[in-house]
């Protein structure tokens, strides 16, 4: 969108659609990295490379919950970015269609 001037709001539909597509692609890329790198993190930590002695057990208690939170957040962020991008494109299309419909109705009223 570009600025509002004279009481009107201008939407650059092409740029807004591209922004939505870029946002969706970023979400997909983030999800792919989560699956790859996050999966490696989870797999490696499941083996408890810090050991199973008292110190390792203490580390495990502090670490496991944090790992789960970070991996869930990472996964959710990718999903939400993707969905937000799709919603941006859908919103732009709805706005353009609404504007075209309203414009057609006004043209019919003006021609009477």
Describe this structure in words.
- With 112 residues, the protein is mostly helical.
- It is built from two helices and two strands.
- 81% of the residues lie in helices and 6% in strands.
- The protein has one domain (18-100).
- The longest helix has 57 residues, at 54-110.
- The protein has helices at 13-46, 54-110; strands at 2-5, 8-10.
- The mean pLDDT is 92.
- A two-stranded antiparallel ribbon has the order 1-2.
- This is PE domain-containing protein.
The structure class reads mainly alpha
Beta-strand residue fraction = 5-15%
Main beta-sheet annotation: 2 strands, antiparallel
Q: Cα-atom Rg, whole angstroms?
A: 24 Å
Features:
about 110 residues, mainly alpha, two-stranded antiparallel ribbon, 2 strands, about 80% helix, about 5% strand, PE domain-containing protein
């Amino acid at each position: 969108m570009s600025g509002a001037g004279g009481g009107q709001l201008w939407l650059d539909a092409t740029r807004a659609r591209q922004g939505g597509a870029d946002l969706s692609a970023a979400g997909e890329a983030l999800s792919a990295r989560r699956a790859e790198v996050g999966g490696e993190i989870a797999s490696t930590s499941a083996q408890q490379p810090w050991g199973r002695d008292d110190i390792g057990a203490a580390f495990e208690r502090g670490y496991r919950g944090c790992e789960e939170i970070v991996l869930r957040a990472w996964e959710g962020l990718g999903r939400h970015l993707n969905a937000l991008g799709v919603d941006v494109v859908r919103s732009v299309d709805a706005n353009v269609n609404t504007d075209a419909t309203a414009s057609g109705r006004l043209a019919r009223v003006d021609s009477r």
